[in-house]
Amino acid sequence: MANDLTIAFDPGASGTYDLQGGTLSVGGIINNDTFNWTGGTLNYNSPLTIGTAGPLGAALVLDSDMALNTPAETIAAAGTLTQTGGNHTVTGELRVDGTYHLTGGDVTVSDWTIGLAGKVSGGAGDVFKVDHSFSNHSVQKTSWDTELAELLLSGSFMTMELAGADYGADYAGYTDNFAWGIFHIGSAITELIIRDGVTGNRGAALYVGLFEIDGGLTDLSKIFSDYNIYYDAALTGNGWLGGKSYALNGSGSLMPVSSVPEPTSMLLIGTGLIGLIGRGRTKRKAA
């Protein structure tokens, strides 16, 4: 078990720790003065809180020279994690009650929980990889921005809780509604259970630009959901779905959005989704 790192141990003492490279493995950090992290790997072997009372301060920036590995992590309501590169791995639960900005780098989480005040953003090419569960309870729909980012479910038995509302097969569902640019279900999937993540939101739904499932249409039978998943049939990468609807286990369906949106809706989503039009992987069709 790694020992704690204490900075400025004695009352009235001062001290600075600079992590510029290499690897630092600690049980925790008791920071009474200054911890400067500009490069290298931090293995933080206790649950870590990023916020006003956290040892790394209220705001943490990970860049291409940095890697953060934790068993559990909380971005507190007053906390912000901005990742512009590097590697971020949480082997247990990552709870976001504050703000998580991703603009590059790798993120891998076992269980990802977003609280009521949680806000997440990511752009084209940004991938949030989740190995076990994704639970979205956020009500911050106007501050949420993942319309170009990818959510990759990579585990075998997965659960997912939705925060988005069901607007039907309409492009309005992509605006301020927790939409994802790419929803990707990996080859290891044996069961995916989708539930409502917001109390009383009986019209829950998931809107995605591209829908990708490595096992092809046969693996749709592994999705158990009473809620609909909508995909953009206008995107070339969804051509393998043929613009059709497919029943899921439960009362939900995988459904296309293919109607021509109103000019205002097109203006809001067209610029963002155009970056996904050419993307797609070869899918295996059901026999």
Structure description:
There is one protein chain. By secondary structure, the chain is mostly beta strands. It has one domain (42-276). Helix content is 4%, strand content 44%. It has one helix spanning 263-273, and strands at 5-7, 16-19, 23-26, 29-31, 34-37, 40-44, 48-50, 59-62, 66-70, 73-75, 80-83, 87-96, 99-102, 106-114, 119-122, 127-136, 150-153, 157-162, 180-185, 191-196, 205-213, 223-225, 228-232, 246-247, 253-257. A hairpin with a 5-residue loop joins strand 24 (246-247) and strand 25 (253-257). It is elongated and about 65 Å long. The termini are far apart.
Q: Describe the sheet with the most strands.
A: 17 strands, mixed
Query: Would you report the number of β strands?
Result: 25
SS-derived structural category: mainly beta
Radius of gyration based on Cα positions: 20 Å
What number of domains? Answer: 1
Helices and strands, in order, run as EEEEEEEEEEEEEEEEEEEEEEEEEH
Mean pLDDT: 90
CA distance, first residue to last residue: 52 Å
> What is the 3D shape?
elongated
State which percent range the strand residues make up. 35-45%
* SS element count, helices: 1
**Poorly predicted residue ranges:** 261-271, 280-287
Oligomer type: single chain
Fraction of residues in helices?
under 10%
